[in-house]
Amino acid sequence: MSDPQRSRLGGLIPHSVDARRIFAVQALRAFAYGLGSVLVGYTLARRGLSGAAVGAIVASLGAGIALASVVIARYGDRIGRRRTYATLLILMAASGTVFALSSWVPALLLAALTGSVSADVVESGPFTSLEQAMLPRTAGDTPPARLFATYNTVATITGSLGALAAAGTGSAHWLLAYPVAAGLALPFALGLSPAVEEPAVAKARGQLNRSRSVVRQLAALFALDSFGGGFVPQTFIAYLLVRKFQASHESIGVLFFGVGVLQAISFQLAGRLAGCIGLVRTMVFSHLPSNVLLAGVAFAPNLTVAIVLLLLRHLLSQMDVPVRQALVITVVEPDERTAAAGYTNATRYVARPIGSLVAGAVSGGSLGAPFAIAGVIKSVYDLAFYGLFRRRLP
What we know:
The protein is mainly alpha-helical. The chain contains 15 helices and two strands. The protein folds into two domains: 13-201, Growth Hormone, Chain: A (Up-down Bundle), CATH 1.20.1250.20; 212-389, MFS general substrate transporter like domains (Growth Hormone, Chain: A, Up-down Bundle).
């Protein structure tokens, strides 16, 4: 990559024009998803939909992301990464419009099943699967962990701003930010150069050959981690703080904003730490202590202690996100990156709702139980991951 092609994003690391275009799409999408993290559930409730209907729509959001990720894994390279990228943005615009303007449940279910709508600021769906495969082809000699650290930092900052913007409005029409963001992002996606494609698999169908075994292991491990994470989504954290400690919505809002700031810091720390001790050690040595802190929330004697534990936990727990993304594209062959990212991301969305269902059942006996169980499950994941991969990468 020639020097004129290189630039700096926020003084962090050098990136090509293609990388900056992908970051721009990520920023616009994350801002809309940040709005959605606040407004989707709120809007559905205000429209008077039944609990069963809302549950079906929320389940369809996760199912759609998992399904779309598998489709990207199988056909993304065959259709072309740029063409698929643009198609997802068009689906995002259409689906977001449905959520903004319609109360008809079948339409909402269909929009959710496209996989282009998310209520997670840092999502791991079909967009991420494509970007995870494209970014390494845009960054020259930039270490993958630092590349994905910047990528996730962009999402966290802009997504937090979106959530903050949503806090000042209760109007469903703000969900029109989805089509607006998609429309603004489309020129960046269409402007990507052919360098982001994988010519060797232009006619492939997302089949994993040489990397099949390692992708299966990664998918199983990531599913276990996501299952554990499903016990303690932010909605349940807020529920616990209110029920157990009578926390106000203002204090919860400040906590979640602080969580977003700490996540952005942790992503940058992860990129630098991985360059010193390696991908696997960075993942495990940061994630394992965070799970001990998570389990400790179950035994917090008051709100202050619970908040401190949660903040410390989030400073460490998200360090594995950019490193995990870097590891996936490092341990597989370049022509299998789209498939590997798609399948491993899909398993996370399949497993997470199961954890949430189990958490709902066990929380009846003790509100703190899901935190303790999640900490144990995710610690098992860390130890298993370290045992399997510590000698595969430097």
